[in-house]
Design a protein that fits this description.
Blueprint lengths: L10 E6 L4 E5 L22 E5 L7 H17 L3 E9 L1 H12 L7 E5 L6 E9 H11 L3 H16 L7 H17 L14
Parallel strand pairs: 3-4, 4-6
Antiparallel strand pairs: 1-2, 1-5, 5-6
Helix pairs in contact: 1-4, 3-4, 4-5
Length: about 200
């Protein structure tokens, strides 16, 4: 079962990494026009993940790797649909965090679930590359691996996972690592030295 918030055509459901929720007005966090996809389009067998990086925060090979591995994660989770990931820095993420969640400061990922159904995801994610870079350097892992972790976290929010209390937090992060292991990346959240 997906999250219990009603989705209407003029609002989106946003979840930040703390599990806080709010309705975000129709302003598109990815900066796209308000055109919508054709409802008669057949369902995709494999999820599509588009990584948008207008500031060039990751190299093209890094973006491709994140996109491909995130699509693998969707397949592992049995999800189709489309996830659009916009890579941002601290300033843009902090602004979005205040605007959509009414929380000061930056965060790693904000998920805008635009009406996912059972097995089909339709979501926009804001992923903070500055936060990913700080954590990747501290943990001694590749930047794209940490960025992928945040992307999988957002996808799991759309699949009904939440992290609003200690038990759900532990379950969600364990599922992230299970998925990352299944696609050959390896456990990432559980790395020694990560602050929770």
């Amino acid at each position: 079962m997906l999250q219990t918030t009603n989705h209407s055509s003029d609002t989106s459901h946003a979840t930040d990494d703390s599990g806080a929720r709010t309705s975000a007005e129709a302003d598109d966090p990815l900066g796209r026009s308000s055109s919508s996809a054709d409802d008669d389009e057949p369902a995709r067998e494999r999820g599509l993940v588009c990584v948008l990086d207008p500031q060039g925060l990751l190299s093209p090979p890094q973006r491709g790797w994140v996109s491909d591995r995130a699509a693998d994660a969707m397949e592992t989770l049995g999800l189709g649909g489309e996830v659009r990931v916009r890579l941002v820095g601290d300033a843009e993420m902090a602004d979005a965090h205040v605007r959509h969640m009414n929380v000061q400061g930056t965060t790693d990922v904000i998920t805008f679930d635009l009406g996912s159904d059972e097995g089909e995801v339709d979501a926009d994610l804001l992923v903070c590359v500055d936060e990913a870079r700080r954590n990747a350097e501290r943990l001694g892992i590749a930047l794209e691996r940490e960025t992928l972790l945040y992307t999988v976290h957002g996808i799991l929010h759309c699949a009904g996972y939440d992290d609003t209390d200690e038990a759900s937090h532990a379950a969600m992060h364990a599922r992230e690592d299970e998925v990352l292991e299944a696609i050959g990346v390896g456990a990432t959240f559980a790395l020694e030295g990560r602050s929770t």
